């Protein structure tokens, strides 16, 4: 087998004709790496991803360097990447100071990070579920005033290590709050990877019922329990066409020490190619990037597609 | 999180209310192990699986011992397992001599193994696609005459390492031939793991169009490219309710040296539990079995559910 499949002859009814892959490897993936990666490698990683055809590449965070030392070089990364026309390079921003730094680095898209549960809001943000928006609202409103689009991430949307199963109505409330203050996109995250496809379809339906357009909804799955790609299929069937993924499956979940983290971009592209869904991504170039990064990090390549193609070619 | 999820509140429309998991670990899984496993461990593995609630456990093969030394103790395995009422213990039988041995061992269900492609038929069976049925027909007919139900496996149903993409009409022809000579069940296998969900839905539809009942169709996916559970979801949505899986993901594909082999039974049960689909399987007991077997084999536990639950409990 080569690195390409033929599109499915049939069976893709009710699926979108194209999917926008929101690549999170350079930010969400590298953030969870223990060893500090130098700026050269981060820039090369991002430039390889844009060359492979990824349309959105979350590039870094502007957070306190003592909190996330891995991403302390965000300004350098943003100044050194070769910005490809048409490609977006969002950065994560937690507060007003982060937005200042992002704007100074000429970031043209930002993201904020909210919680669907009270416990995680308190542990990760130092806020309650009820008052976390006090943290985001000024940032989102100022960004929107600067014509900078904002994406809102919502974590723990299906299960929470402390609270168990999460009420989807609670998730919808947080999503609505983010949209209401100006987020043009949201990303619902299964941070600990416990969701199954029925829950995904249910939540997407409730989000649409709340007035959030399908075009604004992205999904973010972790493969901790092996469910990420099945959940993605359920989201596509519910009309979603933005899917987060991380090249090589980079990015573990700190609450479950599984070998697998984010949905691997290669595994996602394999499925979408097979379904005849356009992504603009060249799978061969993506696998080469994943293999290169794994070698540079001194570890086996983690995605199954990259493993399989490496041994079959 | 405990080892249980709540059933999905909604979203399971068009899915079966129950699924029969056809556990293939003791045969298809162990067959691919390099180290010879002693009979005690095989018997304990099978008895743990029946205690965990698996309804069908493919126990061994009656093939030439010089071909598959790992399963040379088939008769001893069959005589020593504690046969649980209501549980089926099929065995793989390649020919008349194998059927003699299976009957002598009081096997009450058998399976035969066909190919959907000519190249694999020649390499694996020493027959052409056109004449492979000459090998199976006498075995199937004699078994049916003895009131022994026969399942027909069909390998390489979606892709073949030598021939590339496989025409689904060719797969349907082989399935029809097996059903016509007396197989009550078939299992369509993605032996090299390249299929994507649209192809699965298409093939199931063509099988049904050919007159094969949904109740007779099983699916057998490999996770080589990470697609197994998404493909399973597509098969369930097409009306299939028999799914092959291997505890711990045991069983590599010899044509792609990926870390992952068969769909792991634990990952399947996690999804089905989440969808509120009945299986009769106790996930905790299954994960304990998978963890025990991995320890006995001296390797890390391979399924993602077992990895995740081991570290979270």
Helix-strand blueprint:
The structure is a homodimer of 313-residue chains.
Chain A: E1 20-23, H1 25-31, H2 39-51, E2 56-57, E3 60-61, H3 74-80, E4 91-92, H4 96-104, E5 110-115, H5 118-125, H6 133-145, E6 150-155, E7 159-160, E8 164-165, H7 168-181, E9 185-190, H8 197-209, E10 217-221, H9 228-237, E11 242-245, H10 265-274, H11 283-297, H12 304-312
Helix pairs in contact in A: 2-3, 2-11, 7-8, 8-9, 10-11, 11-12
How would you describe this structure to a colleague?
Two copies of one chain form a homodimer. In chain A, helix 11 (283-297) packs across helix 12. The relative contact order of chain A is 0.15. Chain A contains twelve helices and eleven strands. In chain A, the strands form two sheets. A nine-stranded parallel β-sheet of chain A has the order 2-1-11-10-9-6-5-4-3, sandwiched between helices. The first copy, chain A, has a two-stranded antiparallel sheet with strand order 7-8. The N and C termini of chain A lie close together (8 Å). Chain A is an alpha/beta fold and 313 residues long. In chain A, strand 9, helix 8 (197-209) and strand 10 (217-221) form a beta-alpha-beta unit. Chain A has a single domain (20-312), classed as Aldolase class I (TIM Barrel). The interface between A and B is large, with 59 and 59 residues.
């Amino acid at each position: 087998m080569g690195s390409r499949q033929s599109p499915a002859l049939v069976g893709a009814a009710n699926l979108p004709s194209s999917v926008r892959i929101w690549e999170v490897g350079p930010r969400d993936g590298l953030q969870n790496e223990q060893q500090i990666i130098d700026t050269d490698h981060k820039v090369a990683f991002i430039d390889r991803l844009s060359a492979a055809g990824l349309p959105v590449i979350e590039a870094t965070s502007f957070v306190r360097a003592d909190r996330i030392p891995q991403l302390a070089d965000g300004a350098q990364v943003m100044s050194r990447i070769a910005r490809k026309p048409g490609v977006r390079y969002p950065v994560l921003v937690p507060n007003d100071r982060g937005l200042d730094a992002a704007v100074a680095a000429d970031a043209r898209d930002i993201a904020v990070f909210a919680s669907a549960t009270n416990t995680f809001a308190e542990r990760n943000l130092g806020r309650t579920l009820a008052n976390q928006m006090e943290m985001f609202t000024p940032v989102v409103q100022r960004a929107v005033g600067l014509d900078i689009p904002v994406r809102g991430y919502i974590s723990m949307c299906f299960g929470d290590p402390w609270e168990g199963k999460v009420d989807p109505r609670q998730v919808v409330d947080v999503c609505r709050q983010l949209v209401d203050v100006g987020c043009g996109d949201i990303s619902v995250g299964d941070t600990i990877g416990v969701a199954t496809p029925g829950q995904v379809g249910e939540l997407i339906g409730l989000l649409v019922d709340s007035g959030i357009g399908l075009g604004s909804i992205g999904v973010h799955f972790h493969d901790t329990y092996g469910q990420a790609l099945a959940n993605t299929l359920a989201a596509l069937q519910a009309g979603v066409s933005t899917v987060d993924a991380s090249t090589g499956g980079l990015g573990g979940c700190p609450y479950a020490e599984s070998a697998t983290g984010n949905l691997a971009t290669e595994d996602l592209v394999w499925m979408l190619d097979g379904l005849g869904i356009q992504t603009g991504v060249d799978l061969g170039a993506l696998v080469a990037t994943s293999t290169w990064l794994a070698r540079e990090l001194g570890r086996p390549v983690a995605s199954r597609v990259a493993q399989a193609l490496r041994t079959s070619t």
